[in-house]
Design goal:
222 residues; single chain; mainly alpha
């Protein structure tokens, strides 16, 4: 078959007045693995590609573990009340479900123990002469729950106020023999008032303690 049998295809089409156009073949974009992760997400019903690209929150268990690590750091130097620990977690913007789960786990691991901590503080403060009014105020400052506060302070409610104040005042009176009686009285009264004793109790306990101490000292001198 000779070459004359066939004309050049493009020349043939040109003679017929057919406009030549380039052939365009659209192929899907190929990335490593066959397609992009975002294109893959777009094929899944209910998946927001913007959300995929922005990232999603970590699973609950992972978030709770992070929160517990924070609790350990908070309580490493000194024990803290549940209220204080909870507030610090909230300040770090942990979601409420994460905070609740972390606090439950913290109780199981004894990272927090409000009743034990409050009882220990009350015992320490009572030895320093703190009255129930002052005990409550100090526990509330440490963000203990009100029920915990009342349970801890209950042991001090049975104390006779004047007897408790006098026990502190008489020790202070001995230490203030180097000042005159009126100065000792005012200082001891203020000392008792700062520890939560009422004005009436503070006044009587301070006056009785100073009088008794000066009287014993005077008697011993004779």
């Amino acid at each position: 078959m000779s070459d004359a049998t066939f004309k050049d295809a493009e020349a043939f089409l040109e003679e017929l007045g057919v406009e030549r156009r380039p052939l365009v073949v659209e192929l899907p974009e190929a990335e490593e693995g066959g397609r992009s992760s975002q294109d893959g997400a777009a094929d899944v019903p209910g998946v927001d590609t913007d959300e995929v690209s922005a990232g999603t929150p970590p699973p609950l268990d992972e978030a709770v573990s992070e929160a517990i690590a924070t609790v350990r750091r908070i309580t490493a130097g000194a024990p803290a009340s549940e209220g204080r620990v909870r507030r610090k977690l909230q300040q770090r913007e942990y979601p409420a479900p994460v905070v609740d789960a972390a606090m439950e786990r913290a109780r199981r691991e004894r990272l927090v123990d409000d009743d034990a901590m409050a009882a220990a503080l009350v015992a320490e403060w009572r030895a320093k002469g703190h009255a129930p009014t002052r005990l409550r105020a100090d526990l509330r400052k440490r963000e203990f729950d009100e029920e915990v506060v009342e349970r801890a302070v209950a042991v001090a409610e049975d104390d006779e106020p004047l007897a408790a104040a006098f026990a502190i005042a008489k020790d202070r009176a001995v230490k203030m023999r180097h000042v005159d009686a009126e100065t000792a009285f005012r200082r001891i009264m203020g000392y008792l008032a700062r520890r939560g004793h009422s004005e009436a109790v503070s006044r009587k306990a301070a006056r009785d303690a100073v009088f008794d101490d000066r009287e014993r000292e005077r008697t011993a001198g004779h």
